[in-house]
Amino acid sequence: MKKSILITGGAGFIGSHVIRRFVNKYPDYQIINLDVLTYAGNLENLTDIETKPNYKFIKADITDETAIDKVFADNKIEGVVHLAAESHVDRSISDPMAFIKTNILGTVVLLNAAKKYWKDNYDGKLFYHISTDEVYGSLGEEGLFTEETSYDPRSPYSASKASSDHLVRAYHHTYGLPVVISNCSNNYGGNQFPEKLIPLAINNIKNSKPIPVYGKGENVRDWLFVEDHASAIDLIFHKGKHGDTYNIGGNNEWKNIDLIKLLCKIMDDKLQRPNGESEKLITYVKDRAGHDLRYAIDSTKLQKELGWSPSLQFEEGLTKTVEWYLKNQKWLDDIVSGGYQQYYQKQYVTR
Ligand code: NAD
Ligand code: DAU
């Protein structure tokens, strides 16, 4: 019988890359994608694998205890890779409650189901919780986040993710639930919802609209290609030490303004515009409330213990990413019509 693995949030950005990797690489696993399809969930992300025999989609909310219990009972789940979350910091500032519900309560509902269905035999079971580097707070000019860095979340999003991490560890220590956690830096690549910096900027440059840069553009993020995050997740799921945490990062720090300028250069080239044309669209806007200055990950543990390393240099990854959005015009256009317009107006025009 195939081993059933439940992947939550598989219709989202990172989840869809993880689903694709697992479905293609592990024909002996039954991969169950559980997603409620919020504004960020899009089954178009998975059209290439949706008919594979080892893939199944279930539309359900992770906060719905009855539905989640039924999924565990019906499918004999042996492993969970938990990605479903509200993930955008700006939305957490305008609507924290959605983050509390999904990221905290939803995680507890899943933990309870795993505990209930696995309690007689934890052998071969694993609850893998996907988290973020934002739980560690904000760095100054120097230093890196390690697995020992104290938690210091500073936005409703990061506080909700920190809370879920603590709960996952509590279920390990209190009930012996086999768990593993990873905390990753900023991902980029195809299929990312264009509310996040890189796809938003690509879309605006393409349409010759202003590129909104918060504050002075001096905040620093550590960018990792999404398929490299998926490869780390694969490795940690199969080889990670239960009870442990692994940091995942690209060793690739960029000030927002420098990243945007590089993106403008790549876009000018791809759109055959005169050099410097796209940079004229850069527009400094009001800063994000409580905007964390700098994130940077030390992923030595993952590299040394499990032999992981990122596969792409940033310029190559960013070029591939730009090519993906230009090629997948319809994917982007479908998203940026309708509800997205209202979000965009509220976020950028009335600030
Ligand atoms: P995303 O917003 O693109 O996708 C989230 C998915 O979760 C969507 O498909 C959505 O429909 C689903 N979902 C949301 N609420 C749900 C609910 N109540 N029940 C079921 N499904 C629900 O997010 P992403 O950027 O792909 O992030 C995935 C995970 O990785 C999150 O846990 C996030 O915290 C973490 N993470 C993201 C990044 C990043 O740079 N994007 C970095 C580190 C960690
Ligand atoms: O570090 C990991 C985190 O990275 C993940 O946990 C989150 O889910 C993910 O959304 C991301 O959070 P950020 O807030 O860092 O990503 P975002 O793309 O929203 O912003 C990146 C940087 O760019 C940040 O400093 C804010 C800035 N920014 C963002 C937007 C949307 C702008 O200057 N202008 C913008 O319009």
Helical content (DSSP H or I, runs of 4+): 40-55%
Strand content: 15-25%
Note the total helix count.
12
Sequence stretches where pLDDT stays below 50 over 5 or more residues: none
Distance between the termini: 55 Å
CATH H-tier superfamily of the domain at 3-190 and 223-251 and 292-312 and 344-349:
NAD(P)-binding Rossmann-like Domain
Number of strands: 12
| CATH class assignment of the domain at 3-190 and 223-251 and 292-312 and 344-349 | Alpha Beta
Give a list of the ligands: nicotinamide-adenine-dinucleotide, 2'deoxy-thymidine-5'-diphospho-alpha-D-glucose
Mean pLDDT: 97
CATH architecture of the domain at 3-190 and 223-251 and 292-312 and 344-349, by name, is 3-Layer(aba) Sandwich
Q: Shape from CA axes?
A: globular
Structural class: alpha/beta
Oligomeric status of the shown chains? single chain
CA radius of gyration is 20 Å
Main sheet record: 7 strands, parallel
CATH topology of the domain at 3-190 and 223-251 and 292-312 and 344-349: Rossmann fold
Order of helices and strands: EHEEHEHHEHEEHEEHEEHEHHHH
Question: Brief overview, please?
Answer:
The protein is an alpha/beta fold and 351 residues long. It contains 12 helices and 12 strands.
What does this structure look like?
This protein has a domain of 244 residues: NAD(P)-binding Rossmann-like Domain (Rossmann fold, 3-Layer(aba) Sandwich). The chain is of the alpha/beta class and 351 residues long. Strand 1, helix 1 and strand 2 form a beta-alpha-beta unit. 43% of the residues lie in helices and 17% in strands. The model has no long low-confidence stretch (mean pLDDT 97).
